[in-house]
Design a protein that fits this description.
Length: about 270
């Protein structure tokens, strides 16, 4: 979910999958997990609920704590058509910046996506350590993005100072989802010192393995510091609102069954 984004309207064709999700490596241990098993507010020891208007990407939502809760084993993020300050919608955005971050590991999430035109769902990572500079320079990892006007397709994107959406050369790919609309899908990120791979429903989506000589170049590979999780449901915006907003389709919900992060065992 870009903090500022220039959208390429000629999206890449879905990848012809060649590789399967390798699973959790034997030398990894569970470092973070939210199974969303307790009804009520999201766990405050894991998540910070952001408050205030979205001021990026021409989005139209105001983030509130009331728009996110746990129910029936899922995190629910609900976007509603209701005015708050100068915004026409409310929704929720959560992050783990004050609670959990990691450098290298495996992230798993099982998610059901809203289908309405105007929604923009995202699970992404931002750097907790910005030693290389501000946004872009220190990188961004979009594990999953989905826009409601193209409901059968999901996207996964990496941004660096050299490769990003502003320059029109972000490392990105998309895939067509199988199954019924609104069904759950599993998204996986595998990240180590040599590269990043993302998967949807067990099949490779996006991969980035820079040449060895570039691994020490933060313009190409800033992904050697700790990142934290962000999950949100935006409304409208430069991408989500590209084909308008179906106002009558709201409220809309993003559902998350679980989020887990495994990291290398320090004792292995």
């Amino acid at each position: 979910m870009k903090l500022f984004v220039t959208i390429l309207l000629a999206l890449p064709a879905p990848l012809a999958f060649a590789d399967d999700d390798p699973g959790v490596p034997d030398d990894y241990v569970l470092a973070f997990a939210d199974e969303f098993s307790q009804d009520g507010p999201p766990d405050p020891s894991l998540w910070t609920l952001e408050e205030g208007p979205a001021r990026h990407n021409d989005e139209q939502e105001y983030y509130t704590a009331e728009n996110a809760w746990v129910e029936d084993g899922c995190l629910v993020i609900e976007a509603r058509r209701e005015s708050r300050e100068d915004m026409d919608y409310t929704s929720a955005r959560l992050n783990t910046e004050e609670h959990f971050s990691f450098c290298y590991g495996r992230l798993e999430a099982r998610i059901a996506l809203p289908q309405a035109r105007g929604t923009w769902s995202a699970l992404w990572l931002l750097p907790s350590d910005t030693r290389y500079g501000g946004w872009l320079a220190s990188g961004e990892i979009d594990v999953m993005e989905h826009v409601g006007y193209d409901p059968e397709r999901v996207h996964s994107t990496l941004h660096t100072e050299k490769y990003n959406s502003v320059n029109g050369n972000a490392i990105t790919n998309s895939a067509l989802l199988e199954g019924e609309p609104g069904a759950f899908h599993e998204f996986v990120l595998m990240w180590d010192e040599q590269g990043i791979d993302s998967y949807v429903d067990g099949e490779l989506l996006t991969e980035y393995h820079p040449k060895r000589k570039h691994l020490d170049n933060p313009e190409r590979w800033p992904f050697q510091v700790s990142f934290h999780l962000v999950v949100n449901l935006a409304v409208g915006g430069s991408w989500g609102g590209h084909e308008g907003i179906d106002e009558d389709a709201f409220p809309q919900r993003l559902l998350i069954d679980y989020i887990r992060v495994y990291t290398p065992d320090p004792d292995a």
